[in-house]
Amino acid sequence: MLAQFTSLGRLAAGIFASTAVIGLIIGFAAQNTISNLIAGVLIAITQPIRIGDRISFEDREGRVTDITLSYTFIDPGDGSQVVVPNQLLVQGIVHNHSGADSKA
User: In this structure, is residue 46 part of a structural domain?
Assistant: First the structure.
């Protein structure tokens, strides 16, 4: 709408260009966050792991204590807690030792 006025044409073009650049910057900055959210939704729908399952992921093994949209929390049994981004779980190989029985 601003481009219809000749004196505001350059201003409108500058605003639109700045908005596009800012959108690209925000998109690249939020790429990992968005990937984690999408991976969290995939985990929630497909349920390859559930709270209470004993899993192995990379060099870690433990019981799943919580699954959020962004992260999965694993208790290795040594008093610590491992926080794994869901994007890594979806991309990697997870060995679920519990199988269909979540009490194993």
Answer: yes
